[in-house]
Design a protein that fits this description.
7 helices; single chain; binds guanosine-5'-diphosphate; alpha+beta; about 425 residues; globular; six-stranded mixed sheet
């Protein structure tokens, strides 16, 4: 696979059993991207049985096996490429630490394919995942209306499902112009890599075309610099070297920078990337850099580096919209779990639950509710227990989302609406 194509992180979302894994298998199979070890294993078995050929069913068995071992849907990446892009399939919602990985950037999805089974239509997790996708900032959505083979490739059934999904998208204020609908069968291979004769009433793009024609993710170089610090090292001959990934803006040698909330700063002396000195780093670059006058104990993981004349904001309190995914009981005012935002992990108190939001309409369902629980969305006011640098998602999306963790699991995800410094 070529490394010189732009990368896209793709999330495959949708209700359980609607065909997400089958679609992943189909995409890997059709693009010749089935992992080497699977091919090797298959060759051995085929030779033993005296059979040739490389069947799609075999890929599926293998993916199923791996999934049972907990391997597949991990960020042990599934990858494939089209003419334009190199795609990495990221973990999907409901599996392990999807939300946390997405927020901390380990598997931030650029776009998503929503799988909806034609024989079932919009189901509870379809709704949940669409809401989550919107909360987490996915912009373009490809909707695969799957299992068309089961409904005899009927155009009327396809249209019904499309209209159901459009209603759902409108309810969560997702622009339906940014969604593309395709009738597919992941299992039979219809409209995935080749146009299917079974759907002669459909003349839109097939799935791999639609993926290939997604817009390239725009690196946010024009925004202010935001570089969350992952680690701080001391390197002999250089001094203190904070390390992290540039989320937005540019980092140049000679720039005057500020670290917040540690509230120290200075001039950037050197920037190193892949063991080489560079004059500039851009969004997506992982860098180590050195700032005049900054010692190892002056800054820490969770600090955000930004321009000295427009430093990252530090929240006294902030308001946010959250979605509760799994909480064993109820969340009330005063609850203090750990918030994970970029590289920071800070205990924060939910001071007040200001309104319950109807996840299927985005509207206020109840002002000042006594509690919220799994499945609820709400507007809340939050007070970090230690200084936390965070930004409104509307201004800097990369630094405006967070995951809420408690008892070893991700219980909620959210986006910052406003920051009170
Ligand atoms: P997931 O839970 O969303 O990952 O769903 P799976 O990929 O595991 O699929 C659930 C079941 O639906 C499996 O038995 C698949 O073989 C079947 N399936 C998936 N896609 C199709 C399809 O396009 N047509 C048919 N007939 N069955 C499908």
């Amino acid at each position: 696979m070529s490394e010189d194509k732009p990368h896209q992180n793709l999330a495959i979302i949708g209700h359980v059993d609607h065909g997400k894994s089958t679609l992943v298998g189909r995409l890997l199979y059709e693009t010749g991207s089935v992992p080497e070890h699977v091919i090797e294993q298959h060759k051995e078995e085929a030779e033993e049985k005296g059979k040739g050929g490389f069947e799609f069913a075999y890929v599926m068995d293998n993916l199923a096996e791996e999934r049972e071992r907990g391997v597949t849907i991990d960020i042990a990446h599934q990858e494939f490429d089209t003419d334009e892009y190199y795609f990495t399939i990221v973990d999907c919602p409901g599996h392990r630490d999807f939300v946390k990985n997405m927020i901390t950037g380990a598997s931030q999805a650029d776009n998503a394919v929503l799988v909806v089974a034609a024989d079932d239509g919009v189901a509870p997790q379809t709704q949940e995942h669409v809401f989550l996708a919107r909360t987490l900032g996915i912009n373009e959505l490809i909707v695969g209306v799957n299992k068309m083979d089961i409904v005899d490739y009927k155009e009327s059934t396809y249209k019904e499902v499309v209209s159901e999904v459009k209603d759902l998208l409108k309810q969560v204020q997702f622009n339906t112009d940014d969604a593309e609908f395709i009738p597919i069968s992941a299992f039979e291979g219809d409209n995935i890599a080749e146009r299917s004769d079974n759907t002669d009433w459909y003349d839109g793009e097939i799935l791999l075309e639609a993926l290939n024609n997604l817009e390239a993710p725009e690196p946010p170089t024009d925004a202010d610099l935001r570089l969350p610090i992952q680690d701080v090292y001391t390197i002999s001959g250089i001094g203190t070297v904070p390390v992290g990934r540039v989320e937005t803006g540019l980092l140049n040698t000679g720039d005057n920078v500020s670290f917040q909330p540690s509230d120290v700063g200075g001039e950037v002396k050197t920037i190193e990337m892949h063991h080489e000195e560079v004059p500039q780093a851009e969004p997506g670059d992982n860098v180590g850099f050195n700032v005049r006058g900054i010692g190892k104990d002056d800054i820490r993981r969770g600090d955000v580096c930004g321009p000295a004349d427009d430093p990252p904001s530090v929240a006294e309190t902030f308001t946010a919209q959250i979605v509760v995914m799994q909480h064993p009981s109820v969340i009330t005012d005063g609850y203090t779990p750990v918030f994970h935002a970029h590289t920071a992990q800070v205990a924060c108190t939910i001071e007040s639950i200001d309104a319950k939001i109807d996840p299927s309409s985005g509207e206020v369902a109840e002002e000042n509710p006594d509690f919220i629980q799994s499945g609820d969305a709400a507007k809340v006011t939050v007070r970090p227990q230690k200084p936390l640098s965070i930004e409104p998602a509307s201004e800097i999306p990369e630094l405006g989302s967070f995951a809420i963790r408690d008892m070893g699991q991700t219980i909620a995800a959210g986006q910052v609406l406003s920051v009170n410094e």
